[in-house]
Amino acid sequence: MKKICITLIALFLACAQQIEAQEAHQLDELVIIDGKKKHKKMFGTGVKIPCAVASLTPDKRGYEVGSTIKTKHPFEVEEINFDITSNSIGDVTLGIEIYNISNNFSRTLQEPLLIKVPVGKKQEISVQPEKRTIIEAGEYFVAIKFIDCVENKEKEHSENSGKKNEREALLFPLYLKKSYIRYSSNDSIERCKINMGLKIRGIEYK
Fold first, then answer.
1. What is the distance, to the nearest Å, from the Cα of residue 94 to the centroid of all Cα atoms in its chain?
2. Are 80 and 113 in contact (CB under 8 A)?
3. Distance from C-alpha of 161 to C-alpha of 167, rounded to nearest angstrom
């Protein structure tokens, strides 16, 4: 009988500890979600370089460029904006990635946020995460990734490299401020002195 009582007491204590741990985790989440908050825009721009553009041609799949941002508090990403000077390639698919620089460039998003860019001149691009995205305090590289484009345009560009068709490209304005770049999915992320002028809107929790 004593053994049964001891076993029941041990089970009760184990359950109580598990409940306390769950409640503590829930309280931690509530501190982030229900604490003091304010709507905020973060600019990863710097000084715009007049008449300068970054050019992505159809053969540059996997190429990543973007901007860096810093936050001192947890930040919920609601919208990411950037400009395109022109797109003469055709339908282009871009992706947004968020890398935690403070944590060895670990990925914050499970999957990149996909964007379809049609042919056209100056365009303001806006993308909202489908799932709630909260980043912790730290420094981040918000990257635009060239994922895909119209197949025949890529073939045409390869066959006519150095000819007039080389003008078919996706062009971005350039800003003078440190950021990072990756030339392909197999390369490492490197520092660079220019960025793409991304703007991130969201909620800062204190």
1. 11
2. yes
3. 10
As to burial, measured by CB atoms within 10 angstroms (0-12 exposed, 13-18 middle, 19+ buried), residue 152 is exposed
> What's the whole-model pTM score?
0.76
Do the bridges between strand 170-182 and strand 190-195 make them parallel or antiparallel, or are there none, so unpaired? antiparallel
How far apart (Å, rounded) are the C-alpha atoms in residues 45 and 194?
9
Residue 105 to residues 14, 16, 71, 150, 176: CA-CA distances in angstroms? 38, 39, 16, 30, 22
SS3 content of the chain, % helix, strand, coil (to 5): 25, 50, 25
Cβ atoms within 10 Å, residue 110:
7
5-18 pLDDT, tens per residue?
444 344 434 444 44
pLDDT at residue number 161 = 58
pLDDT (tens digit, 9 = 90+) per residue, 158-202?
555 555 445 689 999 999 999 999 999 889 999 999 999 999 999
205 CB contacts (<8 Å, ≥6 apart)? Answer: 32, 33, 35, 36, 37, 73, 74, 75, 76, 134
Residues 6+ apart with CB under 8 A from 5: none
3-state secondary structure of 88: coil
